[in-house]
Design a protein that fits this description.
Largest sheet: 8 strands, parallel, barrel
CATH class: Alpha Beta
Strand order of the largest sheet: 1-2-3-5-6-7-8-9
Helix content: 40-55%
Order of helices and strands: HEHHHEHEHHEEHEEHEHEHHHHH
CATH topology: TIM Barrel
Structural class: alpha/beta
Number of strands: 9
Strand content: 5-15%
């Protein structure tokens, strides 16, 4: 059986050989949200459960019919999970602070500014409490590591509650208001919550169920300020949102066109949403290959060109905010986090885009991206002290990668 800890140990032994610092720390920028340039936010799924934290594997690893057993090794030598792809650090729990540390540090060193949590609200139905717990853990970690956070509310949860008759149609606006008031109290007022033109950003993946603009207006009425409300690109105007966000637009790749054609098509799609760039949050995507019983149209990864082309359109266009789709949706295969199948390719692409934007002044390297996983492996190793790991974490969070690397190498020799 290949456990997550075993995968991390092997990963650490491999990466310590290859990590060589290319620049002095004095030449490196501090890792923080930039005050200029594009804002890169990555869509994050906080719905994974593992025995290490919750005593069981959740359905997003096992499949909703428990078709898979993540604790066992599949025929490919990797954990048997409900995905075509496998996280390099092994299957994890979304509430694990060590995993969240690894993810957020990887993002920072790649030039990502923050996360957008896929959130189903505060109801106690289905796996929504688990997702809520993961979202809260992510929010707290974002504050510790100087990253921004925003929520993408899934109103398909309302559809499910109506189906179960746990919610009546005349209670929908009140239900929405309960969720937005909870966000106001627990998220919106905090420094790490991302704001657009002074207001907290709230995305809605849809609306799937609540297409009555008046219901959304009533949900926001009791708040001290209306959120900057963005819905899907083709639905935002119908609910009176402030703007819309794009997602995966497979048609840009129809007919296997060259990169120039892809970029032209995506630019046209994004531009068609609004003449005002502030009303559009554009998206960059690595590919799409789901595991659903009734699969959605796929999008080939094209050896990394899919992300390079879509990100280039976003970086060169007039839109100030870019959503990376996604960090870790393993069910749909849109994951940007390092995997066994793609390695660090996607993070390196994002890092290079930041370097190009800054005319080479964004000094973090591909080798630096490997350090957070080494830290995670150290935290999970027997005999590792919390104090020394915390010191490495602080160095990485400050952007002092060479010092962090030296401490990791020293610790590896000690053990």
């Amino acid at each position: 059986m290949k456990t997550a800890t075993a995968c991390l140990t092997l990963l650490a032994a491999t990466l310590l050989v290859s990590c060589n610092d290319k620049q002095a720390d004095s030449a490196r920028p501090a890792a923080h949200v930039r005050e200029t340039g594009k804002v890169l936010l990555v869509h994050y799924m906080p719905w994974y459960e593992a025995p290490s934290m919750r005593g069981k594997w959740g359905s997003h690893w096992t499949g909703h019919q428990s078709e898979h057993q993540p604790g066992r090794t599949g025929s490919n030598g990797l954990p048997d999970i409900w995905s075509n792809y496998h996280p390099l650090i092994g299957p994890y729990d979304s509430t694990d602070p060590d995993v969240l540390e690894c993810h957020l540090l990887q993002m920072k060193l790649a030039g990502i500014d923050g996360v957008i949590a896929d959130w189903y609200g505060i109801s106690q139905t289905a796996d929504y409490p688990s997702i809520h717990l993961g979202s809260r853990a992510l929010f707290d970690a974002a504050g510790r590591f100087g990253m921004k956070f925003a929520a993408c509310y899934e109103d398909r949860s309302v559809e499910y509650l109506l189906k179960l008759k746990q919610l009546q149609p005349d209670q929908v606006a009140q239900h929405l208001a309960g969720n937005t008031q909870w966000m106001q109290t627990n998220w919106f007022a905090y420094p790490q919550y991302f704001r657009v033109m002074g207001r907290p950003l709230l995305l809605n993946f849809g609306p799937i169920q609540v297409r009555d603009a008046a219901a959304w207006q009533r949900a926001f009425a009791a708040l001290p300020e209306r959120p900057a409300f963005y819905a899907l690109h083709h639905l935002w105007k119908g609910v009176g949102a402030d703007g819309g966000f794009t997602w995966v637009h497979q048609n840009a790749w129809d007919g296997n066109p060259d990169s120039a054609t892809v970029r032209q098509r995506l630019h046209a799609t994004y531009s068609a949403m609004s003449k005002n760039p502030n009303q559009v949050i554009v998206s960059a995507v690595p590919g799409f290959h789901d595991v659903y019983e009734h699969s959605l149209p796929g999008l080939d990864y094209r050896d990394g060109a899919t992300l390079r082309d879509s990100l280039q359109v976003c970086m060169q266009g007039p839109w100030p905010i870019i959503q990376l789709v996604t960090w870790n949706d393993y069910g749909e295969g849109t994951m940007i986090e390092p995997t066994h199948e793609f390695g660090y390719r996607f993070l390196e692409t994002i890092q290079q885009a930041r370097r190009d934007e800054a005319a080479g002044e964004f000094a973090f390297t591909a080798d630096d991206l490997r350090l957070p996983a080494l830290l995670l492996a150290r935290r999970k190793a027997a005999g590792a002290t919390r104090e020394s790991s915390d010191q490495i974490s602080q160095l990485l969070n400050q952007g002092s990668c060479q010092q962090a690397r030296q401490l990791l190498q020293a610790a590896n020799h000690t053990h």
